[in-house]
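Q: What would this chain look like folded?
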Amino acid sequence: MHDIKLIRDNSQAFDSGVARRGLAPLSSRILELDQRRRAAQTAFQESQARRNEASKQIGQVKKQGGDAQALMDEVAGLKDRIAASEIEDKALGEEIDTLLLSIPNLPAADVPDGPDETANVELRRFGEPRAFDFTPLEHDAIGEKLGLMDFQSAAKLSGARFVVLKGQLARLERALGAFMLDLQTGEHGYTEVNPPLLVRDEALFGTGQLPKFGEDLFRVNTGHWLIPTAEVPLTNLVYGDILDDGQLPIRLTAQTPCFRSEAGAAGKDTRGMIRQHQFTKVELVSIVRPDQSDAEHERMTACAEEVLKRLGLPYRVIVLCTGDMGFSARKTYDIEVWLPGQNTYREISSCSNCGEFQARRMNTRFRPSGEKGTRFIHTLNGSGLAVGRTLVAVLENYQQADGSVVIPAVLRPYMGGLDVIGANV
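A: My prediction, written as C-alpha cells:
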C-alpha cells in the first residue's frame, strides 16, 4: 500500500519508482481522483456547516414569529447535497484504494534495473560443486531408485505436483525441518510459532497476496484460504497493532505446509519436487524499526545461508532486479543451491525487505521512544529454508555411485545416528 500524501508531495519520484517496476506513470490518475475526493469532502463539510447554521436560523425566525419556509427548503436541499457528497467521497475513496492496492512496492535505490531474471546480479558464492566420478542423477530418480519417493501414488491420491515420501526419506525431511528450527531459534534468536494454516481475506490483503494474486492460492468452502507461506500468519500477528519501541525487533519462525496453485507454472518443473502444490518450508519473519530494516535484511539472509553452510551445500546469493522482485518487496536476495543432477543453481530461499509496504496494508505502527506520534514498522520475510528443496539438494549433492545417499553430519543426530540411506531402507 502506498502513502497518497507522499504521492501528492513527490509525484515525480513515485512515477520514477513505478516505471522501474515496468509500469506506466500512475500519479496523474491517482491525484486526479484524490482531488475530486477532497472536493467532495470539502463540499460535504461546507454543506454540513451551512445546514447547522440554517437550522439555528430557523429556530430564531420561528421564535420571532417569522416565516422560515425558505430556510427549511434550503436545509432540505442541503441534506440531499450532503448525502450525495458522502456517496461520492466513499466511491472515490474505494477507487483510489483499489488502484493503490494494485501497485507493487517501489524498489530500493540500490536494486538493479532489469526486465526479468536475466538482469539479476550475483553477489557471492559459497563452496565448490562436487566433482563426481559418475553421472549424477536428479533427485526424483534417486528417490525412486531408493523406493522411498513415490509420485505415482501421490498422483492417484491428489493428481500432479504431489509426492509421497516414505521411510528414511520422510524422516530426512523431518530432520531437515527440525535442524533448521533448532538453528534459527537456538542460535539466531527467532521465536518458534505454530500458526494456523487457514487464514481470512484480511491476512492475505495485509501481506499483499490479495487482491491481485488470488489465482495463485487455494480457497476452501468456508471462505478461508490455505496459506501459501507462513509469512502470511506470522506477519499478520501484529495486524492493526501499535507496538512499543522496546518490543522491536520481533523475530519469528515457523515450519508449516505451504499450498500454492502454481497457476502460472504450466509446463515448468513438472517432474520431481521442485515446484509442488504442497510443500514444507521454514519461514523467517522480522518486524523492525525503519532504521533497522536494511541491516536486518543482511542478517536474515545470513541466517538462511548458515543452514546451507552447515549442510555443506554449495550455493550463491543474487540480488533480484526490479523486474523479478515479488509484489511486496522493495529489495530481495535469492539464495540458489547447486543441484548437480540439473547442473545448475536453483532458488532455495528468497529474503525480502518490504519496508513499510505491508505495515500500511495492516495498519501496524510503533511508538518511537521520545516521540509523541506513531510510525509504520518495517517487515521482512525469508525462507530459512524451503525444506523440500533442501531435501532435493541433499539427495543430489550427497548421492553415491551405488545409489545410496550419505547423510550430512549435522543431520545424523536427528536420524538416530544413521549415516547413509541405502536402497529399500
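The mean pLDDT is 94.
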